[in-house]
Design a protein that fits this description.
By secondary structure, the protein is mostly helical. Helices cover 84% and strands 0% of the residues.
């Protein structure tokens, strides 16, 4: 049987750090950081543009809703007016035209 000896976490951590730092040199670390900063900035810019677009679209939608609401109210008022006129004309002519 093989005996399993638990590793000292402190030693394991040092081994991992030593491995990581030996695998990636300083210039690679700097290049990675630069690329990540560039990507972060691009993503922040994209997010800002999308937020601005969302706000513009939301404003347009609210404007359209208000306009449609006014148009619907106007149409309802016009229909009520026309129904009243038709009813008056029916009575004046004595014939049922509108029900």
């Amino acid at each position: 049987m093989q005996e399993i000896v638990p590793k000292d976490p402190e030693l394991e951590s040092n081994e991992t750090k030593a491995y990581q730092t030996s695998e990636i040199n300083v210039s690679e670390i700097i290049a990675i950081l630069k690329n990540m900063k560039i990507e972060e900035q691009e993503l922040l810019t994209q997010r800002k543009k999308l937020q601005e677009t969302e706000n513009e679209l939301r404003t347009q939608a609210m404007t359209e809703i208000e306009e449609k609401h006014k148009r619907l109210a106007g149409l309802k008022s016009e229909i009520t007016y026309l129904q009243k006129k038709c009813s008056e004309l029916e009575q004046a002519l004595g014939i049922p035209v509108y029900e």
